[in-house]
Design brief:
Blueprint lengths: L14 H6 L13 H13 L9 H37 L5 E6 L2 E11 L8 E6 L2 E6 L5 E3 L2 H11 L1
Antiparallel strand pairs: 1-2, 1-5, 2-3, 3-4
Amino acid sequence: MTTINPITSGKGSGASGLYGAGPTSSSGTMSFNSKTFLQLLVSEMQNQSPLSPMNSNTLMTQVATLTETSDIQTLTGLQRVLAQLTEAESATGLLGRAVQGSNASGQVSGVVQGVLPASGQGSPELVLNTASGRQRVALSTVGAVASNTSALQQVEKAGS
């Protein structure tokens, strides 16, 4: 994690120094957590003017903002997990059914024999038993589903 240098008085301090020197995530966006907040708060208190100390209302507003930001990040993470679980449930619902999807080899049709978990932000993969052997396709590439292979062939003929 990147450390935050204290904000110094004089040229270069102020809003641009405060917001431009924070830690960033791998995507280049500002990463803000309670440790970052406390570092900023301590730095702000060390560098405040003794003639005009920080208002307690301002401090409470900042703490409330931190809590709200943390709660939003938690909710976003939970939504991501829920979406992954929903996709996994959809994938397991295809076991034993005939599907048509695509992979690096092109269009692939076969009966779903297994499901592999999503890797990273990807979609779960279906393991298909095809005429040419076992093939993998991402759930997100599935374009047709049928109860059996002959029904899938009818769907494929109707689509061409």
